[in-house]
């Protein structure tokens, strides 16, 4: 394993074949790069060069004031142009997934092979034309819904009933402070208000949307609905998985991930 740091707030570890196709892993809101611990070994064993990245606000670094989804896309651009050579496959979980669309909107996809989104709807606000958003988040409460952080939804399987999936999830997220800072609340509000559907529709690289069938945050149908926006896209649902699909059901997730990325950068 190689560790690296860009500036004071982008940190990463590098694993696998230094000559393999690059795969960049971005975690969700507040989650550390270590939340990909179950994917790193599988991807490295498959011959990939794997980067697990902590953008600012992850892995123990503070989130700077004024960070929004546009800034996150630019931070990813900084990482890709500094640490990665050639095209990279991009894998994002939760907010990390929509960070990939922010990057694509601002910088295009010339440096991108394939995109994989792990349980993240492209539009969190529920509207008549998009019923696949965050449970209970509507135009009526849009201004206040996330004021106190991420609310409980009453959906999904309670953590105490998830068995080994809960153990994996808690291990992967160990050390993450659940309390939100002011900048984190602002980023969450910005994230919640974005709509990436037009970016997905215009993407010229293959994308795979993966849903946890028992996600706490949104209906599993978001993956198929997002994939329907672009003929290069496809969707998959992991049964008995919640929002942390890569952590809760790593064997199933890894099988599909490696198989998909092994197709290479060409559309398919």
Brief descriptors of the model:
globular; alpha/beta; 32% helix; Rossmann fold
Outline of this structure?
The chain is α/β, with parallel strands linked by helices and 268 residues long.
So, CATH architecture?
A: 3-Layer(aba) Sandwich
Within CATH, the superfamily carries the name Alpha/Beta hydrolase fold, catalytic domain
Please give the domain count.
Answer: 1
User: Class, according to the CATH hierarchy?
Assistant: Alpha Beta
What structural class should be given to the helix and strand makeup?
A: alpha/beta
N-C termini distance: 32 Å
Gross geometry? globular
Description:
With 268 residues, the protein is an alpha/beta fold. The chain has 9 helices and 8 strands. β5 (88-93), α3 (95-107) and β6 form a beta-alpha-beta unit. An 8-stranded mixed β-sheet has the order 1-2-4-3-5-6-7-8, with helices on both faces. The chain is globular. The chain has a single domain (2-261), classed as Alpha/Beta hydrolase fold, catalytic domain (Rossmann fold, 3-Layer(aba) Sandwich), CATH 3.40.50. The model has no long low-confidence stretch (mean pLDDT 91). It has helices at residues 37-45, 69-83, 95-107, 164-172, 182-193, 197-202, 222-227, 245-248, 250-261, and strands at 2-6, 10-16, 22-26, 49-54, 88-93, 112-118, 207-212, 233-238.
Any chance you could write out the topology, listing elements then pairs?
Layout: E1 2-6, E2 10-16, E3 22-26, H1 37-45, E4 49-54, H2 69-83, E5 88-93, H3 95-107, E6 112-118, H4 164-172, H5 182-193, H6 197-202, E7 207-212, H7 222-227, E8 233-238, H8 245-248, H9 250-261
Parallel strand pairs: 3-4, 3-5, 5-6, 6-7, 7-8
Antiparallel strand pairs: 1-2, 2-4
Helix pairs in contact: 1-9, 2-3
